Amino acid sequence: MQPAPDQVPAIGIDFGTTNSTVARASANGPVELVAFPTKAGETVSFRSVLYLQQSKHAGRKQTHTWTGPSAIEHYLAAENKGRLIQSLKSYLSDRTLTGTSVFGRHCTLEDLISRMLADLRRQAERQFQTPVAYAMVGRPVRFVGAETEEDQVFALSRLRQAFTEAGFERVDFEMEPVAAAYAYESTLDHDELILIGDFGGGTSDFSLLHVGPGVRQRGRKPQDLLGNSGVGLAGDAFDARIVRKLVSPALGSESFARSLNKVLPAVPAWIYANLERWHYLSFLRTSNVVEILKSARLRALEPEKIEALITLIDEDLGYHLHQAVQRVKFELSHAEQAEFHFRDGSMDLRIAVTRAAFEGWIADELRAIEQCIDSLLENSGISRRQVDRVFLTGGTSLVPAVRCIFKERFGEQRIRTGNEFISVARGLALRAEEALGGSR
C-alpha cells in the first residue's frame, strides 16, 4: 500500500562523485540524516563506490555486489581483489561510455549507478520505517565533460533512468548550490542576496540568489535565482595534482633509464596517470605492466623508485595511497607545511610538502574557479558589493587557496561556512518538503 500524499517522506539525496548523503525533512522537526553502518560505527557519508567480486558455488560462478562503506570493507578484506568502481557520476555526459564489462558481462552505466541508489533507498526505508519512492535529487550546474546543452540533457536523463531502475517512482532535480542555499536559508531571520559555492569531488558549482523568510512568505519567484555557473573540477583534481607532483616522482615518474646508449624515461607516463585515481590502480595489475616495470627496474638509474612502484601495484595499495593524499590535503588546510606519510605493507614514504607548493600545483584549477565566479557576477549584472553573504560548502571549500578567492572579492566578514559535507543533502530535503507541501 502506498502512503497517502501527506505521508510521503521529504527525502533529499545528494548523489556525489565521491560521497553521497541522504536526508529527510519534516514540518515539525529537524532534518534527519540517514546513517550507514560500518565496522567502525555509523556514518552519514556513503562512499559512492561499487565493489564486485566473483565466487564459485556448486560449480557455478556467482557475482556479489557491495556498495558504499561495505564496498570499501569487502575490497580491503579480499585477498584476490575483484572490481572496484567509483566516480561514475563523472561519466554521465560521456556518450561513448555506455557501460563496462564486469566478469564477462556488460553492465550499463545506469545499472551500476542504480545499484548504489537502490542501497541508499533501502537504508532510508529501514531507518525511517516507511516506503521511499520519491526524492529531491541534487545535480551539478554543469556535469563533468558536458560541453553543450544537449550533453547536459543527456547526462540528466541517464541519472533519472538510474533512479527509476533503483525503484524510485518519481524524482525531481535541483541544482546542488541552490540546495545548499536552502540549508543556509534555514538559519536566517532576514532576507539576503547570497552567492553559494558548492565544491564536490568532481564539480565546483555556484549560484547567486535571493533567500530568507520574506522570500519564503511571499512565495519564490524565478527571478530570485539570478544565475548559475559551474566548472568540471574540484577535490578529485586537487588530489590528482598531489599524486602527480608529490607521490609519482618518489615512484620514478621523473627517473630515467639507459637503453641502447640513450637515456630515456624509465617508465611510460600512462602508468603514472593511473595512479592519480586510486581505483584505476587495479587496472595496472596485468602481466604486460609487470613485464614493463621489471624491465624498467633493470635499466633504471634509480631502481629503488621503480621497485616502490612495483610494490604499490603488486600489493594493490591505491586506496591506502589516496587516503594518505586526503590526510595531507587536510593538514595543509590547517598548517603552512605538512608531511606526506604513506606506510602500508612494505612501503614507507615520507615527503615534506608546503602549502605554497600545493597551491602552485593547483594554480590552473584555482584560475578556472576564479573565472567561473567572475563570469557569474558579470552575466548576472551583480557587483561584488551587492552580495550580502557568501556560503561555501563541500570539503574543498576548506582549502585556504579556495577560500582566498572569495576573501579577495567579498571580504572575510561576508563568508559563511558550516556543515560542509551535508549542507546539500539537508537543503534537498528542505526543498522536497516545500515541493511536497505544494502538492499535498
Please identify the oligomeric state.
Answer: single chain
* Rg over alpha carbons: 23 Å
Number of helical elements: 14
Average pLDDT score: 91
Q: Describe the global form.
A: globular
Structural class: alpha+beta
Q: How much strand? A: 25-35%
Low-confidence stretches: none
Distance between the termini: 18 Å
Main sheet record: 6 strands, mixed
Number of strands: 20
Helix proportion of residues, in percent? 25-40%
Mind sketching the topology for me?
Elements: E1 10-15, E2 19-26, E3 29-33, E4 46-47, E5 49-57, E6 60-67, H1 68-77, E7 83-86, E8 99-102, E9 105-108, H2 109-128, E10 134-139, H3 149-165, E11 170-175, H4 176-185, E12 192-199, E13 204-211, H5 213-218, E14 225-231, H6 235-247, E15 256-259, E16 262-265, H7 269-273, H8 287-299, H9 303-314, H10 318-332, E17 337-344, E18 347-354, H11 355-361, H12 363-380, E19 389-393, H13 400-410, E20 415-417, H14 423-439
